[in-house]
Design brief:
This protein is α/β, with parallel strands linked by helices. 43% of the residues lie in helices and 19% in strands. It contains 10 helices and 12 strands. The longest helix has 27 residues. It binds adenosine monophosphate and magnesium ion (MG).
């Protein structure tokens, strides 16, 4: 039985996961870099944090799996997309381990890993995937041996839009993610103020809504609660609209939502209602596999390896703008 380890540190999270060939997650350790209150992620600081905690995460992951390093058959890492300095940490960890154990190494596309762990944990065959996080907002689906991005943000990601709004409102995100803090405020009201709804073809834009939301509170006197609710309603309706069109056009019957924003109950409710209209099955994932994690990298790399992928160390440079379309999907036969 092949055992695969995955290193992930493409943004503010750092993770080490271990999986076996049957898709059992044997370990999934994670740590999060926390920027100073009121600030966003500074890539170099995040990378420094990741490099500091990585050795201990690896040790804890091996302990969790009751394995030693020599039991690992395959070493996988997030090659991109992501923040350059952060990506370099998981790549260096993987290269070091591959060289010292003399084991194969596989660089994995981050977005594809989110889809593949979703298929595994959600027991889905061929879903349309809405991936909404702090760093990404994409609608991804499989067609002809590639994962294609059918729609995406043209400016900032949805999670980032929520985070910046929260920071501008000086909300306290020390105990819960900012998106959750906004969700709690939104749950206190049904009042709604119109905000710019910005869907362009299959793509999305969140920066105008963000600016308008901040202005509604700071200049027009609306309460943070009402604007938080309106921001959620508007942004979630937008992503639901694009996901719906992908589902209808591609004639798929499964919908998966993943990424940090996927833990939002209102978003899940909207997507579920939309999926019901199309007789599609809707799934979310538990946070451990929806948020950036090492197990998704280990699992995707394992499938790539089994289908014949091989990589030289010289091909392991990180790729900040790595697109899912660039990878030929050789591990699916549909
Ligand atoms: P990720 O980039 O996948 O780690 O996800 C982090 C993003 O998810 C941040 O933008 C958070 O504010 C957001 N997030 C976390 N929980 C929630 C929630 N309940 N509702 C909306 N956004 C959330
Ligand atoms: Mg991610």
């Amino acid at each position: 039985m092949l055992i695969s380890i995955g290193f992930e540190s493409s943004a503010d999270k750092v993770g080490v996961g271990i999986v076996d060939e049957d898709g059992n997650i044997l370990a999934n350790q994670r740590a999060t870099y926390k920027p100073e209150i009121g600030h966003g992620v500074i890539p170099r600081d995040a990378a420094e944090h990741h490099a500091e905690v990585m050795p201990n995460l690896l040790k804890t992951a091996l302990e969790e799996a009751s394995l030693s390093a020599k039991d690992i058959d395959l070493i996988c890492f997030t090659q991109g997309s992501g923040m350059g300095p952060c990506l370099r940490v998981d790549a260096i960890a993987a290269r070091t381990m591959a060289i010292s154990l003399n084991k194969p190494i596989i660089g994995v596309n981050h977005q594809i890993a989110h889809v593949e762990i979703g298929r595994l944990i959600g027991k889905l065959m061929d879903p349309v995937v809405l991936y909404v996080s702090g760093g990404n907002s994409q609608i991804i689906a499989y067609s002809h041996h590639r994962y294609h991005v059918f729609g995406e943000t043209l400016d900032i990601p949805l999670g980032n839009c929520l985070d910046v709004f929260g920071r501008e409102m000086k909300l306290d995100a020390s105990k819960a993610p900012m998106g959750r803090v906004i969700e709690e405020l939104a749950e206190t009201t049904d009042e709604y103020v119109p905000l710019p709804y910005s869907v362009k073809g299959m793509d999305l834009s969140f920066s105008g809504i963000l600016t308008a939301s901040i202005r509604k509170v700071k200049e027009e006197g609306y309460s943070v609660e009402v604007v938080a609710n309106s921001l959620q309603e508007t942004c979630f309706a937008m992503v639901t609209e694009v996901a719906e069109r992908a589902l209808a056009h591609l004639k798929k019957d499964e919908l998966l939502v993943t990424g940090g924003v996927a833990s939002n109950n209102r978003l899940k409710q909207m997507l579920n209602e939309m999926a019901e209209d199309h007789d599609a099955r809707f799934s979310g994932l538990p946070p451990a596999t929806a948020i950036d994690n090492g197990a998704m990298i280990a699992w995707t790399g394992l499938q790539m390896y089994r289908s014949g992928y091989r990589q030289q160390l010289s091909d392991t440079l990180v790729r900040q703008h790595f697109r899912p379309e660039e990878v030929e999907v050789t591990w699916r036969n549909d």
